[in-house]
Amino acid sequence: MIKQPCHSQYIRKEKYSIDEILSKTIVDRQKKDNDLIEFDGDMIHMASDRYKTFLLKGTTCISCGLKASYFAKEKDIHISNGKTWHFNLYGIDENNEEILFTKDHIIPRSKGGKNEINNYQTMCCKCNQNKGDKIL
Ligand SMILES: [Zn+2]
To answer: Distance, CA 131 to ligand 1 centroid (Å)?
Structure first.
């Protein structure tokens, strides 16, 4: 199982408030067609399960209690395609370190957990890495 590293390399543009991004998250659509919304010149898919998880399950890590602070418009440094901007959610920990927030599978995929909103919870990247394939 490949885990998303806590320190992926992203190209960053603007930061946005949590409210702004979650208020534009499209909840009631499954397919990722026609869900593009413009943010300062970039068209971004807003029906992502990640945003839905943060909207419906909150923006606090279920494990350590770290609260997220903002979204950043970013794209993976390895992807040069211009249409790949998305929002990553971040919090700042007690060491003043920026921590990425993730959509965690409550029951891991490897144990039969499904890719659906009821099986997702908000977790910071550090806790997600520590959790591995356990069920919390
Ligand atoms: Zn955590």
So the answer is: 10
Output the 3-class SS for 58-123. CCECCCCCCEEEEEEEEEECCCCCCCCCEEEEEEECCCCCEEEEEEEECCCHHHCCCCCHHHEEEE
**How many angstroms is it from 85 CA to the middle of ligand 1?**
25
Cα(14) to ligand 1 centroid in Å equals: 24
Report the pLDDT averaged over residues 3-32: 83
Residue 60 Cα to ligand 1 middle (Å): 8
Instruction: Give me the pLDDT at residue 133, please.
Output: 74
Can you give the pLDDT at residue 29? 65
